[in-house]
Amino acid sequence: MTNVCVIQKTAPLLPLTTTATQNWDKPLLAWNFPDEGDVDKSLSRIKTITDAIVFHEWSSIYDSAIKEYFTSVDLSNCKNKNDVNFISDFLFEIPEPLSLNTSQITLIRNDFSKTSWKLFVEIASLNEELKNISFTKDNFEKIASVYNEKIALFKPALQKTVDENPCFQELKNDTKNRKVYKIHTGISSFNTILGFYEKLGIIDANNVVYIREDMASRVDINNSRLFLFLETSDN
Questions:
Q1: What sign has the CA pseudo-torsion 99, 3, 202, 195?
Q2: Fewest CB atoms less than 10 Å from the CB: which of 59, 108, 154, 169?
Q3: What pTM value is reported for the model?
Q4: How many angstroms separate the CA atoms of 10 and 183, rounded?
């Protein structure tokens, strides 16, 4: 089994995740993608990806490589924009957490539980609304309005949680810790998000056909869906 954080190049977030499904309400749950091979494994892989895209309570997170293949525009400047694959908004940033020990991770999770878990509840609620809105430029203003109503208020609290956490403060003061990870939201159509998986090399064109058919039986694949993505910069 291959961890999704490794495949999607978001491994720096692994210290903040759990892989136990009974702990799904932790800030981040890292699913394992079944390795490719026999038919059963391929079908399991297809189902995992379909569920990750369609299920409104799951928020998939991707590497910023998606911006190399798909055009984006900031949510604050998305009105009437043409040829846009997704719209995005910056949420918060954290120093690279790979050096954290178990006690520090527990402390961070406890701090994050005060804000980020509420955020994920609102994201789930937002996705319930977005799935009924077609992802077209005529709807970008409406999408932005619905998003801001549910998500905007969380942004200052999220960054404050990071800035005031002693473990993150220690990482920021460490001269050897040069990386900063910026977490963004993105909104696109179900169909375009499926394209992320193909461009990132997670599935091939044949898988896309099967997954698209499965998705189309559950949602309008041209309607909207929120996801997360990660960008890296130097501290």
A1: negative
A2: 169
A3: 0.83
A4: 11
